[in-house]
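A quick aside before the break. I want you to see a complete sequence-to-structure record at least once, exactly as it would be stored in a machine-readable document. Don't worry about memorizing anything.
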Amino acid sequence: MLNKLEIIAGYDKKGIKESVESVVFERGQIYTIVGKTGSGKTLLMEDIECLNDGEGITKRTILIDGEKPGDSFYVGYRSRLIAHLSQNMNYILDMPVLEFLNLRNQLHTSKEFNVNPIKTLETANLLSGEEIQPQQLLTKLSGGQSRALMITDVALNSSAPVILIDEVENAGIDRIKAMSLLIKHEKIVLVATHDPLLALYGNKRIVLSNGGMSKIIERSSEEEAILEQLIAVNDKMEKMRLQIRNGESLKGVNDLVL
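That is the input. The structure line, written in tokens, reads:
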């Protein structure tokens, strides 16, 4: 079982050695990846996903429990190690949601696929702004519904210990509930984000600049206090968002704003 993942520094876009020599990720923790557009966030995720072995553009090396994966690891286990959810992913199978979940459970005998499909659907609806119906076609799900179902799926049904998520703030889901769900199931979660709420939700922030890891910021006690305020604001925003979606006027809105 994987307990920790480590990135050994490579080089930035200018061929300069990264300032951060290494960074270790442990299960049950959330880490955020921040930086300007084009700073290298996606490339860092790609290095992790392919278990980069010191080659490629960045020359970074990924270690599993302190060791470099052998050839047999790449062939047999990599696909079960990492789940990657991007903002551009959508379902392409034209099948009702519940039928799809039941069918997939039938096709897999592994213990990792032992969650009742109804529970998966119910949990996904806790994250989604709009309820997913059992007979709704996968191809007709909204972006938020798709992302809610995907995140729930990897949290409940997948043995993959590492979850990579790209800009979940644009997915139209309850971000806090999504992160809490993944933490609860002892995943190593890395989130690339521009959102202050998600950025501070991570125990550590990896700052990317010019294609390289420039520094690691551990969440301070002051930032924890700010995070609590941002969560409170987010809760109130969610209430107003629900009112608007339901066609209601924002009565008492002054009481909702901090």
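Two observations worth writing down. The first strand starts at residue 4 and ends at 8. Strands lie at 4-8, 22-26, 29-34, 61-64, 82-85, 162-166, 188-192, 204-209, 212-218. We'll return to this after the break.
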